[in-house]
Amino acid sequence: MKRAFFYVLCAFFLSTATATAAPSFSGSTGMINTPSADALREGQFSLGYHDFKEQKVGTFSLNLLSNVEVGVARHFPDEGSNQTLFNAKWSIAPETVVTPGVAVGVEGIGDGHRSAYAVASKALPLGFRIHAGVGNGRFNGAFGAVEKTINPVSLITGSNTFPATTLIAEYDGDGMNYGARLSIVPGLKVEAGWRDSKTYIGASFTY
Questions:
Q1: Could you tell me the domains of the chain?
Q2: What is the pLDDT of residues 2-11, one digit of tens each?
């Protein structure tokens, strides 16, 4: 009985840790505008799109080597020139039931203002997960995020279920951002929220 309980507990924590993996604005797997310790697994890739007031951002990331994720973010501002930025992340330690996942990475390669960081992520009971990191450049020292996953619930009006939803609150080194990320079908997520006090919408697909 104790062993069975342990296996259920492991599955709970690990499924919570990977359920919301999606690209951030920068292209790195993470929250809204901050990276997490998650990295794409072998053979995986992700596509993302965010529409943020005066600019749109398209991202593509893939697993290059074992525990190494690389990606690109293409910025399309309403005014000014388009910009292509690269990022890379190395997952140093995977998350377990008792220890956080740890990763180091760099974002903004290509604009002369690179931002290096180290981040740790850990699932908690009741669908919560926390992320905390330090970095230079746009991270301005410390950054962090809290996410809460809400499991699907049956609607009163029928047999349909509401998509699994993750609520996100983060500090990206400059200010607070808030969002909601919905898992529509396996791999496909849509999201909306506030970044820099401006609304945004986005979608991503991870395979």
A1: 2-206 (2.40.160.40)
A2: 344 333 334 4
